[in-house]
Amino acid sequence: xxxxxxxxxxxxxxxxxxxxxxxxxxxxxxxxxxxxxxxxxxxxxxxxxxxxxxxxxxxxxxxxxxxxxxxxxxxxxxxxxxxxxxxxxxxxxxxxxxxxxxxxxxxxxxxxxxxxxxxxxxxxxxxxxxxxxxxxxxxxxxxxxxxxxxxxxxxxxxxxxxxxxxxxxxxxxxxxxxxxxxxxxxxxxxxxxxxxxxxxxxxxxxxxxxxxxxxxxxxxxxxxxxxxxxxxxxxxxxxxxxxxxxxxxxxxxxxxxxxxxxxxxxxxxxxxxxxxxxxxxxxxxxxxxxxxxxxxxx
Length: 298
Prior knowledge:
Blueprint: H1 10-23, E1 34-38, H2 41-51, E2 55-59, H3 74-78, E3 85-88, H4 97-104, E4 111-114, E5 123-124, E6 127-128, H5 136-153, H6 158-183, E7 190-195, H7 199-204, E8 208-213, H8 224-235, E9 239-242, H9 248-257, E10 260-263, H10 280-295
Parallel strand pairs: 1-2, 1-3, 3-4, 7-8, 9-10
Antiparallel strand pairs: 5-6
Helix pairs in contact: 1-4, 2-5, 2-6, 5-6, 6-10, 8-9
């Protein structure tokens, strides 16, 4: 198809792309897959689960990576060339969005999807907390938004998208029930994590997550290690959550508390395997639940 590339002012381009994100321009897709670019791995999981064989999905940020503090590279931006849909998290937490869309140029066929649009955000200091997807109820809203965007672009595939989204919504409902059931009556409600990525999850389920750092690439604030050592000893915490094996500071923290280190990732390390029924995100969260129950004394 013929593409018209033009770079306008920031305001005009964003307004145009927001319009496209609602209306789009339909094109025949019966004989070709919809090309979808997503910003990070959780969105890859949701789009591939819902879209099935009707979508071809490219991810900007590698699997296992956290999008907080991340910005797309020029190579990532090139992935938007020829794409039908670009799915990102939220305009509130993706500060790079305007720059990326301007750099990519105006494409009248591109639908820009804000997957977490309308999801209430929390603050980390004065900044919006980007970790919306780690609350399974927020994830349900994101799945619904993605399903509608695919249906809008490809009405022929609507029954498939709706059926697959319904299956994924059921998995998320089952996950929510499992979390509430497994956490009920546990002796502790507080735990220690590497970075401040679980506030949405903790707020949903009546927990408190104590982070070593605010964002993934931050250094600990002065005195923060000592605070967590005192807290961990006072609460009798036996496990703390790192995000990568061998995080040196976390190993030191665990040794000072007298705790062991468990792993948790904010994003799947790999796509859902062929033939696997559970979404990669749902499987990741069930694994975290098992470790969390252990950490809280279950």
